[in-house]
């Protein structure tokens, strides 16, 4: 039996294991896949980035506001340092029936990943 040799054009660029979860109504499948690929360019293969976005829910403090909850879990480690962060935040997205675009899940995740890239 002949076995062909498979060669790669270069090293794999995938690093941090990145998972983005969000309802399709707030973040498209294409956007999730894009952000996961951005996250995979950060850190090392041992690192993890997990961002989960909930469905919209009524604000507990203001009935005219709808929010979504973001849960973030990061783990980065190198020979000198270890960085872990976990947190949950409610983001106001619709106020008085109008979308606050700067608070969209897409913008929020983009800003979050940008901060991680700068911190690297």
Textual characterization of the structure:
It is a single chain. The chain is elongated. The longest helix is centred in the C-terminal third of the chain and has 15 residues, at 105-119. 18% of the residues are buried. The protein starts with 16 loop residues before the first strand and ends with a helix. Helix 1 runs parallel beside helix 2. The protein is an alpha+beta fold and 120 residues long. The protein contains 2 helices and 6 strands. Strands 1, 2, 3, 4, 5 and 6 form a 6-stranded mixed beta sheet that branches.
In total, the number of strands is 6
Query: Could you say which structural class the secondary elements and strand pairing correspond to?
Result: alpha+beta
Shape: elongated
**Whole-number mean pLDDT:** 87
**Rg (CA only):** 18 Å
Percentage of residues in strands: 35-45%
Give the uncertain stretches in residue-range form: 1-12
What's the N-to-C terminus distance? 47 Å
Approximate helicity band: 10-25%
Largest sheet: 6 strands, mixed
| Number of H/I helices | 2
- Topology order in helix (H) and strand (E) letters: EHEEEEEH
What is this structure, in a nutshell?
The chain has two helices and six strands; from the N terminus they run E-H-E-E-E-E-E-H.
Protein topology:
Elements: E1 17-21, H1 29-39, E2 48-53, E3 57-58, E4 65-77, E5 82-95, E6 98-99, H2 105-119
Parallel strand pairs: 1-2
Antiparallel strand pairs: 2-4, 3-4, 4-5, 5-6
Helix pairs in contact: 1-2
């Amino acid at each position: 039996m002949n076995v062909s040799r498979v060669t790669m054009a270069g090293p794999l660029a995938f690093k941090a294991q990145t998972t983005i979860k969000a309802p399709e109504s707030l973040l498209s499948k294409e956007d999730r896949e894009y952000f996961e690929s951005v996250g995979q360019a950060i850190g090392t293969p041992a690192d993890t980035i997990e961002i989960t976005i909930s469905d919209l829910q009524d604000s507990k403090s203001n009935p005219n506001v709808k929010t979504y909850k973001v849960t973030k879990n990061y783990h980065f480690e190198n020979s000198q340092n270890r960085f872990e962060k976990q947190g949950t935040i409610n983001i106001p997205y619709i106020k008085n029936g109008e979308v606050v675009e700067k608070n969209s899940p897409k913008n929020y995740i983009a800003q979050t990943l940008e901060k991680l890239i700068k911190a690297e």
